[in-house]
């Protein structure tokens, strides 16, 4: 997948193209439905399919006090978009200048001039242009003028609750530690991405060394607790994407009083000599084993960790089987 970070980077003659526009936070099942529809629309002509999205949530600029925590970061978003099989992503820097564009200016500068858009796919709640003045109806009017068609794609809804699949619902599930519901809504495991850094090295002293992720993470960190999941290392030469089963701890480790911020730590099962320091890894959450608990002593903590590791091993073996 080609990534353009500015409309000026799109080469002359790239279009005509089929475009899907959205925040694509999480690249969840609803987003994938839009992108699949775009691929179908493009199939007859061979036109490239392009996702137009943003490098941050628009509310971070427009209403910072209302800005939600994102489900995925930019690196994760681009990888997930590439996995859908689309041809390109135009990643726009959402800043005051972009927010000030009128709907007509946005259409001309983003869709018409660089991409020669012939079809645009959006959701019912799509808004664009200064003050949110543009909606799918305004987009269709501009499309009639500039020569492109607008398809409004229906929401993907849960059969049992009729609730619309949304990034808000996914954030709600993750905040409750319900990573399994989040995975069903996403169509992939929820994950965080970050660099492995040095920690207090307590896990090693307890016999369960952990890869400690930096505080500067991409992705939504779920509720405190212990999870079964995977550590995916893209940094190993000749073995990119190496996946390790892992017991994952999220929280401040209340047994001790010197961890002031929430941490994500992953103990890779059955690997005693693994050196991940400085590696950028993705930690995928499969299921929550238990909540976070303070223990009265080291021996009690060690016994619980050993039990957690056994449960994680059993859980992942059952899932793979």
Would you kindly provide a written description of the structure presented here, covering whatever features stand out?
- By secondary structure, this protein is an alpha/beta fold.
- The protein folds into 2 domains: 2-153, HUPs (Rossmann fold); 190-320, Riboflavin kinase-like (Elongation Factor Tu (Ef-tu), domain 3).
- 31% of the residues lie in helices and 24% in strands.
- The protein has 10 helices and 12 strands.
- It has helices spanning 29-43, 59-62, 74-83, 96-99, 103-112, 136-146, 167-175, 179-186, 202-206, 298-320; strands at residues 2-4, 17-21, 49-54, 88-92, 117-123, 149-153, 191-197, 211-213, 225-233, 242-251, 263-268, 280-290.
- The strands form 2 sheets. It has a 6-stranded parallel β-sheet with strand order 1-4-3-2-5-6. It has a 6-stranded antiparallel β-barrel with strand order 7-8-11-10-9-12.
- Strand 2, helix 1 (29-43) and strand 3 form a beta-alpha-beta unit.
- Helix 7 (167-175) packs antiparallel against helix 8 (179-186).
- The chain starts with a strand and ends with a helix.
């Amino acid at each position: 997948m080609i990534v353009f970070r500015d409309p000026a980077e799109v080469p002359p003659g790239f279009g005509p193209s089929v475009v899907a526009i959205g925040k694509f936070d999480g690249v969840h099942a609803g987003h994938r439905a839009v992108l699949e529809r775009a691929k179908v629309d493009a199939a007859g002509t061979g036109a490239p399919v392009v996702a137009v999205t943003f490098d941050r949530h628009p509310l971070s600029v427009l209403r910072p006090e209302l800005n939600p925590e994102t489900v995925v970061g930019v690196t994760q978003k681009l990888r997930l978009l590439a996995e859908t099989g689309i041809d390109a992503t135009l990643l726009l820097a959402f800043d005051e200048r972009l927010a000030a564009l009128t709907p007509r200016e946005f259409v001309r500068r983003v869709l018409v001039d660089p991409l020669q858009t012939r079809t645009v796919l959006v959701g019912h709640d799509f808004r664009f242009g200064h003050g949110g003045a543009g909606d799918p109806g305004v987009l269709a009017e501009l499309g009639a003028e500039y020569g492109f068609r607008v398809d409004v794609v229906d929401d993907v809804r849960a059969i049992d609750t009729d609730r619309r699949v949304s990034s808000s619902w996914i954030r709600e599930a993750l905040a409750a530690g319900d990573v399994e519901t989040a995975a069903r809504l996403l169509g992939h495991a929820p994950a965080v991405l970050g660099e492995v850094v040095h920690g207090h090295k307590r896990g090693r002293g307890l016999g369960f060394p952990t890869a400690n992720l930096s505080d500067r993470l991409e992705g939504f960190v779920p509720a405190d607790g212990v999870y079964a999941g995977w550590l995916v290392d893209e940094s190993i030469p000749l073995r990119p994407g190496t996946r390790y089963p892992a017991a994952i701890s999220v929280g401040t480790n209340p047994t001790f009083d010197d961890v002031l911020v929430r941490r994500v730590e992953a103990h890779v099962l059955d690997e005693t000599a693994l050196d991940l320091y400085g590696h950028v890894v993705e930690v995928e959450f499969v299921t929550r084993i238990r909540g976070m608990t303070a223990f009265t002593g080291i021996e009690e903590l060690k016994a619980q960790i050993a039990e957690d590791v056994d449960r994680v091993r059993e859980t992942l073996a059952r899932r793979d089987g």
